[in-house]
Amino acid sequence: MTRVLGRLLTLLDHTIAWLAGLALLIITVVLFTNSMSRYFAGIAIIGGEELARYLMVWMTFLGSYLLVRVQRHVSVDVLARLLPSVAVRVLDIIVGCVGAVVLGFMAWIGWDLASFIMNTGQMMSSLPIRRGWIYMSVPVGCGLMAFAYTIQVVIRLAGGELPRPERFGLAGGPDEQAAVVASESQESR
Amino acid sequence: MPAAILLSAAIALIILSFPIFLALLAATIMTFETVGPPMPSRVLAQRMVEGVNVFALLAVPLFIFAADIIGRGQIGRRLVALMEALVGHLRGGLAIATVLACAMFGAISGIGAAAVVSIGPIVYPALLRAGYDRGFAVGLILSASTLAMMIPPGVAMILYSVQTSTSVARVFLAGLSSGVLFVILISAWAYIYAVRNDIRSGERAGLKEVGRRLLGSVWALGLPVIIFGGIYGGVFTPTEAAAAACVYAAFVETVIYRQIKPWQLIKISQPSAIMIATLLILIAAGSLMTWYLTLERVPAQIAAVMSAIPTEGVLAMINVVFLMAGMFIDPNSAVIVLAPLIQPAAMAVGLDPVHLGAVLVFNLAIGMITPPFGLNIFIGITTFRLPYLTVVKSVMPFIGLGIVALLLITYIPILTTWLPRAVHG
Amino acid sequence: NTPVLKIAHVVPPGDPRDTAANHVADLMRNSDACPMDANVYPSAQLGGTTDLIEGMQLGSIEAVVLPASFLVGFQPIMGLMDFPFFWPTDLDTLLELHQSDAMRQMLDTTESQGVYSMAVWHTGYKQWTANDPLRAPSDYQGKRARVMPSAVLVKQQESLGMTPVDMPFPETYNALQSGAISAQENPITTSYVMGFHEVQDYLIMTNHGNLDQIFMVSRAWFDGLGADCQAELEAAVEEGRELVVTETLSLEERGLEAMVEAGIEVIELSSGEISDLREATLPPVRELFLQRTGDEGQTILEAIESEIGR
Ligand code: NA
Ligand code: NA
């Protein structure tokens, strides 16, 4: 049972990671193509700028879910470094509870906002897409984050360990990650 | 009063090791829901989204993505080889070549840690062989790597410009000025060090060898040319330039250097997107908090208090706050959270926003190498496999150099403002 | 219980619309009949553009001053305000038209979005700035220009064979300087304040449109005020409307002088050249507008046309 749940969770994580990465790739391609076609062909893709912004917003909230999963959000962890592991476990549970409540609330008011704006029928300024879709990133992203914090509480209460950042190619932080890559590429030489 | 509740709650949660975005969200939501003003709560969700729904902000993910691609490739190695051929024969030549390679790397990358891992492992053994002390070598690499923050493009500078509505192009040029100043100071220190310790210089590379290495790094050198040539030549806007940097870096590393396979780009995009979210979600939460404090007129009140203090005093206070922030959190997060709170006050006492940007970014660059939690210190520990205290000791003289440079930049504004004025009027 | 009035806009302090907004806030703060806790939030402090209007719908902002173009996403009929070579170029005639019933009929279309468009604040006629003396429609061919995200404005530029680029306003200066775009359209005051004359050679006096502002309030909030409060606010906004015109005219005069001094060449067009430009742009824009807005758009367009006497 736990194994199946664990698999489902991994599947969810990987799907979200793919979507976030895809958003980044599309942003890159859209902005690059837009500048090239404008300069060399005199064709401007109206709406490319807006699409890129919307994808960035979605990437923010989707990526944040994964950061909660692997505990990689920016924090000043002076205290956590000094505490014994029992206290760190208690701290994880407290952070998880506050996170679940705060982001659950955010998801709920985000849903309220998104459905309100959907109902006004307002469109993006240059694309035939309802503006409400940009706000849908809040209930989805914050809902996922609240879920991830709940899982964190459950895991830590049960005495388990949280997933490692390596799962997403993230060693400790952006820099340790770069260090790992550097040592990998040295080995490959 | 609501502002005091909000800020103390946020600080308490941050000290308790809460993720900063969660601390800001929790404190703002709690204050908003308890002491008002009476508004429907869904406004909070709107302010979060609109905080990141900003075109100029797109440069941030794109330059980070570009840095990730470059960090996995060949560009760093080629730059070092070139700089060594150019200045290796001078007194302190290899150390100066390291500084220049970091500076060139900075013209490609926008974050202050990437050069440590791209250039560090290449120059570190060479520096030791040439007779430089281990502490000097590590300190030099870690501090010169921060040049990437000052030399454009720089993610911290972009974030500052977005958060304070200042012209990115001007802040870039001010950052370039402060970067050049820092290059001169570290190079001078390297020269003095080499003379005092009687370190041999390398042999002068023949013209043919210089040419060969120049050819070898021509694709790497092409990136800054494309970025700035493209911006100033009208091909793209600064934001689009970031996208061009990604495409170019991907092209060079996959097609020319063949260090990365094309399908790996899809894989690289995932950790990049996730790491980018650390900054963007902070911006979302931070702009919600700033919006609430603006409603309560807090920035205006800070400005009113500050306007009674002489400009020099305000600058000193800003330096202390940002140096301390830089010790504990990464520079980009510090800009996101603090710049919008401090900027109105700085404007009230008549500071030039472009000058302020250069000062803030330089502060945070120093913060990268300041204990206890300077980011580059930890990267140094992993990259060079050295103990914490050794690395901390090695950066000390360079922190001193950084503070000298900071004082010059802070109290002689013309050092950083003349270039943007000369170019943009 | 004092009503709160937050007036938000996106330009820096000192702009004519900021001065007028502050005047409205002062009047309401010091009102005897209906004192309000009134404050102005300039420089997009409370939000960018579209999200300010949403703020009124959500109940976080009471009043917003923005160009009508930003209302188009909410109400396509407001695109009429962006029509080229359509509005009277005589200032007094234009201001009179703004007070007409036909105009009120158009402004009332924002009611469906919970927005009460109280008044039109005139902030100047639009002129082109460019690196070439753009006279005939063929001169515009192939030029890249910044466009606001409004279908009508995009169509206007396309019908001249231009390449419209929807870049954010703050990037415009650098884009003009680098040549990423070579032209832009704005009132003289805006072009002057943004320093566009430093990076452009010609100011072409087309008077081809307006970038007039709508002073709008949340309908729900307005209805919650007492009748005397409503009357006080109407009067204050009317005073603001008059003030914004005088402020604009004086800034325009100073701006034009400074731009000429800085070396920009002013191009005056003959009435023949103007009517060539009108022929090239107005019919396609009109057709697009009618396609998008249907019968309701046609009724309002015709009402305003008959008011203008066209
Ligand atoms: Na850089
Ligand atoms: Na730090």
UniProtKB/TrEMBL annotation, chain A:
Cellular location(s): Cell inner membrane
Family annotation (Pfam families): DctQ (PF04290)
Transmembrane segments: 15-33, 90-111, 132-155
Region (Disordered): 170-189
Cellular component per GO, a single term: plasma membrane
Biological process (GO), any one: C4-dicarboxylate transport
Domain Tripartite ATP-independent periplasmic transporters DctQ component: 27-155
Bilayer topology annotation: Multi-pass membrane protein
Family, similarity comment: Belongs to the TRAP transporter small permease family.
PANTHER family: 2,3-DIKETO-L-GULONATE TRAP TRANSPORTER SMALL PERMEASE PROTEIN YIAM (PTHR35011), TRAP TRANSPORTER SMALL PERMEASE PROTEIN (PTHR35011:SF10)
Quaternary context: The complex comprises the extracytoplasmic solute receptor protein and the two transmembrane proteins.
Stated role: Part of the tripartite ATP-independent periplasmic (TRAP) transport system.
Protein name per Swiss-Prot or TrEMBL: TRAP transporter small permease protein
Organism annotation: Natronocella acetinitrilica
From TrEMBL, chain B:
Keyword Transport: yes
Sample GO molecular function, one term: transmembrane transporter activity
Spans through the membrane: 6-32, 52-75, 95-124, 136-160, 172-193, 214-235, 272-294, 354-375, 395-419
Pfam families: DctM
InterPro entries: DctM (IPR010656), TRAP_DctM (IPR004681)
Membrane topology term: Multi-pass membrane protein
Residue ranges constituting the TRAP C4-dicarboxylate transport system permease DctM subunit domain according to the UniProt record: 9-413
Localization per record: Cell inner membrane
Primary location: membrane
Cellular-component GO terms for this entry: plasma membrane
UniProt keyword list: Cell inner membrane, Cell membrane, Membrane, Transmembrane, Transmembrane helix, Transport
Keyword Membrane (UniProt): yes
Subunit structure: The complex comprises the extracytoplasmic solute receptor protein and the two transmembrane proteins.
Function (record text): Part of the tripartite ATP-independent periplasmic (TRAP) transport system.
Stated family: Belongs to the TRAP transporter large permease family.
NCBIfam families: dctM
UniProt-recorded name of the protein: TRAP transporter large permease protein
Species for this entry: Natronocella acetinitrilica
Lineage: Bacteria, Pseudomonadati, Pseudomonadota, Gammaproteobacteria, Chromatiales
